[in-house]
Amino acid sequence: FHRVKIAPSILSCDFARLGAEIEAVTQAGADMIHIDVMDGHFVPNLTLGPDIIKAIRPYSSLPFDVHLMVSPADLLIDRFIEVGADILTIHPEANPHMHRTLQKIRYHRKKAGIALNPATPLDVLDYILEDVDLILVMTVNPGFGGQTFIPSQLEKIRAVREIIGMRSIELAVDGGISAETGAQARAAGATVLVAGTAIFKNPDYAQGIKSLRS
Ligand code: DX5
Ligand code: ZN
C-alpha cells in the first residue's frame, strides 16, 4: 500500500499565529502545506494572497500546495510562484483556458493541479491529462473548513484512479477528511489527504496527522 501524503490545510489554523502554526505542522510530520486562496467571487469567502504566502514561506521547508479558488487565476500565477508556491491547483470553472494556464505553471517547473468540485464531471480531464501533476477531488463544496464529507465523491475518486492508470499523477482529496473518511478515500485510490479540522482542531497535531495515516 502506498504511503499517503498528508497536507494540513491552514484554513483551520490560528491565523494570528500563522508562522508558528506552519512550523508546528511541519514538525508534526506533514508532507506539504495546503494553502487555500479564496477570492470572494468564485467561492463565498476571502482568505489570503501572495504577500501572506511570502511572509510565511520561511517557516517551513515543505512544499507549498496552493489551492487557487480564484477566478481567473491566470494573471496571478507568476506572482504565486515568485513568493514560493510549489504546487498550483486551479478550477476549470474559474479558468476558461485550462491548457494554457496549466502549461504556464509547468513552464516555471512547478506542479500543476486541477480541482474538481463535487458536481464537476470528469470529462474536463479529457485532453489535459498529460499536463497535470495532481488531481484534487473536492469532497465538499469549496469555501469553508469544517464541512461534511460528501459520500458520492468516493465513486468519483475511484473513477479518477482508473483514469490516472499508471501515470505519476497525485490524487488528492479535500474537504471533511477525518480518520474514517480519509481511510475510505485512500481505499478508493487517494494518495494525498488534505485536512484542516482533523489536524488543527486536534490539540496534538502529530497525533492528528498519525490518525490520518494509519
Ligand atoms: C475548502 C478548502 C479545504 C478546507 C478543508 O474550500 O479547500 O482545504 O480547508 O477543511 P476541512 O478539512 O476542515 O474540511
Ligand atoms: Zn483546499
Supply the key terms.
TIM Barrel, binds zinc ion, 19% strand, single chain, 8-stranded parallel β-sheet, alpha/beta, binds D-xylitol-5-phosphate
Portion in beta strands: 15-25%
Describe the sheet with the most strands.
8 strands, parallel
Number of helices: 8
The radius of gyration computed from the alpha-carbon positions, rounded to a whole number of angstroms, is 16 Å
- What is the β-strand count? 8
SS-derived structural category: alpha/beta
The order of strands across the largest sheet is: 1-8-7-6-5-4-3-2
The parts where pLDDT drops under 50 for at least 5 residues are: none
CATH class: Alpha Beta
Q: How much is the average pLDDT?
A: 98
Task: Report the CATH architecture.
Answer: Alpha-Beta Barrel
Q: How many independent structural domains?
A: 1
The bound ligands are: D-xylitol-5-phosphate, zinc ion
Residue share in helix: 25-40%
The CATH superfamily turns out to be Aldolase class I
Sequence of secondary-structure elements = EHEHEHEHEEHEHEHH
Distance between the termini: 11 Å
